[in-house]
Each structure stands twice: as structure tokens, then as C-alpha cells.
Amino acid sequence: MDRDDIIKMAKQAKLPYEYDTGRLLHLKEVERFAELIVRECANVLRAESERLYKLSAEEKDELFASNFEICAEKCVDNEVAIKEHFGVDRARGEQ
Fold first, then answer.
1. Which residues partner with 17 through β-bridges?
2. How far apart are CA 32 and CA 34, in angstroms?
3. Tens of pLDDT along 25-62?
4. How far is CA 75 from the centre of its chain?
């Protein structure tokens, strides 16, 4: 996802833009807002992976423990995929 994608979605959301030029107003703020939403989604996945890893470590049944761990790993994979898709952390580094 790049700046053009953010502008397109912002216009679809009917955010304000200059009538004569079509330039989106407050573009930097809109980009930052989009980044914050992506980070929050990634944080939810991170928290869920931590919860599942903990369950895995506490589980006595090996099959259940393995299943919890697999699910936790998928949460981590999805966290990374979301950040990569939206370009979060490329410019700023991990925050």
C-alpha cells in the first residue's frame, strides 16, 4: 500500500480535499492515522500470539500445546504480513 492508495481511500471516505486541485487536505495526518490503525491491528495479533504461547507453555497435553503454538505462530506471521502490506516500520523503524 502506498500514498496513492491512502489518498484513494481517504477520498472514498469523503475526507476534505481542495476543490480546485483535488489535493487531499491534511495528508500527513491522514497517513499517520492510517499507520496508527495498522499498528493497533498488529498489536492485537501480537497480544494474541503472546496469550497463545503462554497457553502452550502451560498445557500438559502435547497435542493441545502444539496447536496453541501453531496458532501463536500464525498470529506472528499475520502481524508481519499486515505491517509489510501497509509499509509500516519501513520508514520509521520498529516503535
1. 24
2. 5
3. 999 999 999 999 999 999 999 999 999 999 999 999 99
4. 12
One-letter identity of residue 58: E
| Burial track 67-93 (b if 16+ CB lie within 10 A, e otherwise) | ebbebbeebbebbeebbeebbbbeeee
Q: What percent of the chain has pLDDT over 70?
A: 94
Location of C-alpha cell 520508514:
91
What does pTM read for this prediction? 0.80
For residue 3, the number of C-alpha atoms closer than 13 Å in the C-beta half-sphere is 6
Q: How far is CA 55 from CA 65, 67, 68, 73, 77, in A?
A: 7, 10, 7, 13, 18
Rg value, the chain, Cα: 19
Closest CA to 9 of 46, 38, 45: 38
